[in-house]
Design a protein that fits this description.
It is built from 16 helices and 23 strands. The protein is α+β, with helices and mostly antiparallel strands and 483 residues long. This is Circularly permuted type 2 ATP-grasp protein.
Length: 483
Amino acid sequence: MQESGYFNKYNPIDGVWDEMFGADSNIREHYSKVINYLSLESPDELNKKEELAKRLFMSQGITFTVYNSGEGIEKIFPFDIIPRIITAAEWAFVEKGIKQRLTALNLFLKDVYHNQFIIKDGIVPIDIIYSCPHFLREMYQLQVPYDVYVHIAGIDLIRDFDGTFYVLEDNLRTPSGVSYMLENREITKRLFPDLLPQCNVRSVTEYPALLYKNLLALSPRPVSNPTIVLLSPGIYNSAYFEHTTLARLMGVELVEGRDLVVDNHKVYMKTTNGLQQVDVIYRRVDDEYLDPLVFNPSSMLGVAGLMGAYRKGNVAIVNAIGNGVADDKAVYVYVPAMIKYYLNEEPILKNVPTYQLGNPDEKEYVFANINKMVVKKTNESGGYGMLMGHASSEAEIEEYKNQILKAPRNFIAQPTISLSASPCYIQGELAPRRIDLRPYALCGPHGIEIVPGGLTRVALKEGSLVVNSSQGGGSKDTWVLGD
């Protein structure tokens, strides 16, 4: 193996699983080809590649929005040029675990909106379900096509200090980020065209075709060419780039609420040739804004009467409405029990140990150990509303405790997981930064398919454990190697 100044200066973080270096300071075999390749590149050449990546992201409009930023609306999504590499064996384990988990979560959603056996048998407490703001009584006894509620899932995975994979959270409503997975791969092809085939990296580019195939299969009308639309909140949404990308790659219409109308319990799209019936809606609008007649009456993003058309079975909606009850962080605690209850199997992927602050004993324990905890709101996302106990002042902790005491059910706590580290190209040198992984699973009438890869998010600030783009994180290409 080539000696390289980049890797000689690399200092793994003590007590943290390093994706590239083993415990004996030897480079893991699946990184060897990448290291040999990079060893032949001068810092000047790598700097040029990094600059090219930034220019490509800017020219292609690969951006996201930070609402609380004073710098304007859109920002380039930071991209690290060094790939995160996963072996075939590791991926097989992850894939099997995600399929098991999603099968159970889908069964849970069907059950909780129909017979509620899991509540009657005391596996999940009734008050946890009924106090969840995303449990929608409007979905009770509503039949969804093929009993599939979660058509698209983004399952956030992390690795602890010993390399064990844990599920950090389930995203089952309108998971975002898949366009960055696709664009990261396209950028990598430009930067390292020879390296991908040399390393036998599996492709992720089939994702739009797989999604389109699943959407077609959901059409309630037996027509050869169903009308599929992607419903977006519009240009000011943080993921608007993703909406345009997916609509373009699938060849479907990108619409907003004002482009659709409901007549006689059927949904129509306004076109220059008149109204065209819509069969399937891939929506990126949250539940509460979908239908002002049923949910938020002031919503300008949805379509009046959409829920009536959905209830009649005249339109399929992806993901199903009401899925938030399954990815509520207070319900997350019970997913291993769901797997045992519905599938009679032991969970393949572990949950992070989680304390419910609505439980007085667990709340007392968390308050006593809050410096070692991450406390989260049960229905926030994007890294907002978190307390990182080890990095917070006494005043911040006290203020957060007061919030918890007002509504303890709305909070959970988890021990601070170290998060694995991966080499990143930072100012001309390689340095370890913390990462997570969001693989994307597609559930259709014919089963669950997962493209080999996902979005690896990176906490680019040194010492940070927060990978969300809204909190200063970036991403890198995720390589899953073939057998």
